[in-house]
User: Which sequence fits this backbone?
């Protein structure tokens, strides 16, 4: 098995901050209906948790802060067509308008990485906050888990691909956290090796079922913990 690659960090050359929230997609009931504990009873599990975090950032950082929301589009299109029978992208866009967000839909991990590296002039605009809401395992973010195939994913960002992200994208001491399952078990270590910054991740699974307006963040399951 290939090890995660390490690259050299570059010095900070900018003071302009960007806050980045990445949101993966939901599963489909056609793959989940026979499971003892199906995933994603609600299409907006990850959208709602992201929305609460986005509203918190807007309130804290002010009306002019650059807050970018990257959403994996194909899973919401498929959920719209195959299950909800309505346009979920319109609901996502309504969140963007409410909080004056920079909304970017992406269709692959290459597009996500391209935005991180090139979506802003990275000599002037640095990512100070990067958070992921979605399905994941110990080695990767899974953007379309159980959406196109049963209990699997065709779209992901793997720990072996993190070297494609430039360390100069991030400000020193940026806040970086994955709210997905298991990423603290391996991916966080590769993130640090590749990008020279810690990423907080979960040891064990996370639970989105209790996410509400008073407690936006997913919770750890029993015996779980956060790790870098």
Assistant:
């Amino acid at each position: 098995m290939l090890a995660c690659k390490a690259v050299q960090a570059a010095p900070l050359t900018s003071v302009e901050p960007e806050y980045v929230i990445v949101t993966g997609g939901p599963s489909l009931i056609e793959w989940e209906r026979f499971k003892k504990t199906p995933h994603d009873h609600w299409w907006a599990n990850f959208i709602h948790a992201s929305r609460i975090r986005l509203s918190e950032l807007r309130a804290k950082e002010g009306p002019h802060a650059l807050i970018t929301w990257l959403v994996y589009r194909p899973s919401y299109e498929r959920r719209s067509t195959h299950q909800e029978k309505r346009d979920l992208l319109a609901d996502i866009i309504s969140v963007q308008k409410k909080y004056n967000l920079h909304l970017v839909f992406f269709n692959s991990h290459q597009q996500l990485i391209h935005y991180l590296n090139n979506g802003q002039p990275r000599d002037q605009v640095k990512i100070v906050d990067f958070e992921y809401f979605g399905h994941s395992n110990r080695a990767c973010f899974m953007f379309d888990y159980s959406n196109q195939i049963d209990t699997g994913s065709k779209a992901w960002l793997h720990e072996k691909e993190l070297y494609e992200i430039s360390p100069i994208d991030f400000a020193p001491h940026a806040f970086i956290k994955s709210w997905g399952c298991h990423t603290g078990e391996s991916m966080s270590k590769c993130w640090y090796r590749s990008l020279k910054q810690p990423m907080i991740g979960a040891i064990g699974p996370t639970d989105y079922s209790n996410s509400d307006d008073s407690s936006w963040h997913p919770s750890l399951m029993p015996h779980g913990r956060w790790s870098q």
In short: The mean pLDDT is 91. The radius of gyration is 17 Å. The helical segments are 29-32, 45-61, 73-84, 88-99, 109-118, 187-195. The chain has one domain: 17-227.
